[in-house]
Amino acid sequence: MSEEPQEIAERAFTFAVRVIKLCQVLDEKPGVSRTLANQLLRSGTSVGANLEESKGGQSRADFLSKVSISLKEARETHYWLRLLLAADILPERQLTPLLDEANQLVAILTTIVKKLKSP
């Protein structure tokens, strides 16, 4: 029941790869960076994982549920990225591209969810 464009699933996959690489950098730092890396890793990779699950949705409601979870995870990922920036854990130049992509994923997924909810 794949109703979302293939592009969003591929973008979410590429985003997850970028998040993984960022988390590898964070894991090299001591202290709180590792805790934040774990949170970021879980939410950032979950966006695409839930989109993949949505492709096997058994119904429109199931499909909508998985895409909605992807949206929530994209929002959470955006939060963790903002937190890393605000706490000066990583430089802005390193986080801005990921923040921009997280914003775009949220916007695209929001549009998909709204379309799915409309009659």
Identify the notable features of this structure and list them briefly.
single chain; 119 residues; mainly alpha; de novo design (two linked rop proteins); 4 helices; elongated
* Proportion in helices: over 70%
- At the first level of CATH, what is the class? Mainly Alpha
Derived structural class: mainly alpha
CATH-level-2 architecture: Up-down Bundle
Find the CATH superfamily.
23S rRNA-intervening sequence
Number of strands: 0
Residue ranges: pLDDT <50 for 5 or more in a row?
1-5
Number of helices: 4
CATH topology tier name: de novo design (two linked rop proteins)
Number of domains: 1
- Characterize the overall form: elongated
Q: Radius of gyration in whole Å, from Cα?
A: 15 Å
Largest sheet: none
Any overview of this molecule?
This protein has 119 residues and is mainly α. It has a single domain (6-117), classed as de novo design (two linked rop proteins), CATH 1.20.1440. The protein contains four helices and no strands. The chain has helices spanning 6-27, 32-54, 60-86, 92-117. Residues 1-5 have low confidence and may be disordered.
Give a nutshell description of this structure.
It contains 4 helices and no strands.
Topology:
Layout: H1 6-27, H2 32-54, H3 60-86, H4 92-117
Helix pairs in contact: 1-2, 1-4, 2-3, 3-4
